[in-house]
Structures are given as structure tokens and as C-alpha cells.
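Supplementary Note 3. Input sequence used for the single-chain structure prediction.
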Amino acid sequence: MPYPENIPSINDMLNLPTGELAQLPVELLAALQGDAAAPVAGGTPQA
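The predicted structure, written as C-alpha cells, is reproduced below.
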């Protein structure tokens, strides 16, 4: 199931309290994990 456009970005989540992060749906966190692992265009590869 796709998520709505208003989901928090990884940058938005940096300042969320731990309790709020813990209440996010597992599926959303898994999708964001995939986004975080994706290479950034023009970035340098990490070793």
C-alpha cells in the first residue's frame, strides 16, 4: 500500500522524539529504510 504524500522525510524524523518514532507504522519505517539505503545521485560511494 503506497503512503500519502505527507509522510515525514528522513530529515523530518531527525528531530522527532523517540516516543513518536516508536509509534510510526512498521511498514512506513521499512519504506524509509529503503529510501535511506538508496544511493544519492551525484554522491560518492561509501566504503
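The helical segments are 10-13, 18-22, 26-37. The mean pLDDT is 76.
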